[in-house]
Amino acid sequence: MQNHVLDYLDNIVGHCPDKVAFANDKEALTFSQVYEQTRSIGTYLHSLGIYKEPVIVFMNKHPKTVTAFFGVIEGGCFYVPIDEQMPAARINLILENVKPRLMICDDKTIKMAEKFETDAKAVCYEDIAYLPADETALQAIRDKAIDTDPIYIVFTSGSTGVPKGVAACHRSVLDYIEQLSEVLKFDENTVFGNQTPLYFDACLKELYPTLKFGATTYLIPKGLFMMPIKLVEFLNEKKINTVCWVVSALTMISGLQTFDTVIPKYLKTVAFGSEVFPVKQFNLWKKTLPETDFVNLYGPTEGTGMCCYYRADRFFEEGESIPIGRPFKNTEILLLDENNKLATAGELCIRGTSVTLGYYNNPEKTSESFVQNPLNTAYPELIYRTGDIASYNEKGELVFVSRKDYQVKHMGHRIELGEIEANVNMLDGIKTCACVYSKTDEKIVLYYVGEKEKAILIKQLREKLPRYMIPNETVQLETMLFTPNGKIDRKGLLALYEKETCMTQ
Description:
Layout: H1 7-12, E1 20-23, E2 28-30, H2 31-48, E3 54-58, H3 63-74, E4 78-82, H4 88-98, E5 102-105, H5 109-113, E6 121-124, H6 125-128, H7 135-144, E7 150-156, E8 164-169, H8 170-184, E9 191-194, H9 204-213, E10 216-219, H10 228-237, E11 242-246, H11 247-255, E12 269-273, H12 279-288, E13 293-298, E14 308-311, E15 326-327, E16 331-336, E17 345-352, E18 358-359, H13 363-369, E19 370-372, E20 382-392, E21 398-403, E22 407-410, E23 413-416, H14 417-425, E24 430-438, E25 443-450, H15 454-462, E26 473-477, H16 490-504
Parallel strand pairs: 1-10, 3-4, 3-5, 5-6, 9-10, 11-12, 12-13, 25-26
Antiparallel strand pairs: 1-2, 7-8, 8-18, 13-14, 14-15, 16-17, 17-20, 19-20, 20-21, 22-23, 24-25
Helix pairs in contact: 2-3, 8-9, 11-12
């Protein structure tokens, strides 16, 4: 039985050593180069006596960054990716949490690393990636590896402002890749176009299937996502046939009428997630690429990225939600009501190997979300409580409803802010929107991007929603606020509202 993610690399390097594995717009690494540099880095860790420890990878988005990840795993350790785009304060909190002894940097970031509050040794990738491999030592490390060993820690936002490090192991990632590959039909001809930063778990969808099949992944330059026509031209130039993107990246293309100029003619598979795909924008993609396979993916970082899928093989009517479908094999979804009983609508909880190891060095937060299955009192069995509310539709498919923390009490009514957003997104002239709730002012605040006048927007909403769900404040933006991983930044929007409110008082 396979128990190590790098078994993929060991196998594929013998089949296609000279094929490009990872590339950007300027440089590329073949599978043999990835393999050799991975083993050099693993040897270097061994020489320092660093084993089963967190190792920081602080590099700009580059094929060598991916190889650094694999090198850390080869050395029997687990990687912690950070990026120069992260605020220094957040990086210092991460370093305080993991207390690393080593930080792998590139020529640019190694100078920045000196300013961090850490005793970790900073080394340049180029100084360690070409050393002779110690085959005996590496084999000994591999022989001791088991599938519950961690391979990475990815930090998510915390409700208190302190990031939480989600630790995932080989077994979770192996299961995920096997199930995802079957659903999305990856093979040796797959050419991925990576959109997400490498310090988010979303990149798993490309990095490890590339090793499994001998596929190719292009790390798309971040700047292209501000220029949709050039972005699509890049997809065509590299003959990219598979993307696994956040919804905002897809709607940016369709919402700016890019398809009137150029279409991504090689795309065969479009997987999407992180946000609800507005039906109007999805239908535009479906109409433009009628032969393309569209798949809605759902899952939290704590569930190894994605745990549910829905093949969106039709157009959707106004008012419909695209389902999140059904769980991957070897994963069970439980919808629990307020009494921890199975229900047709309730908090979505995950059971199975996709559940990660918990939050690194944070037993208190781990115990809040990784809990004993309340349906099983006979033996220990952890499930992950996502905080997402979901329900089953008439076809037995899972449908995302809202976040528990998007549910507010307003004017004596319990309101799902997601319902307001869904109705706004249906309106012509709306590109994207988000609702936040100010507890201080007891107001629903709607932020939107689009041409529609605020007065007309509110008038149309009154035809769709009850009076108590009509936003108290409506703000038109030039561009929406997004988090670094492409999700709408609702915390940032709320902070913006509170700041502006404070200034006017």
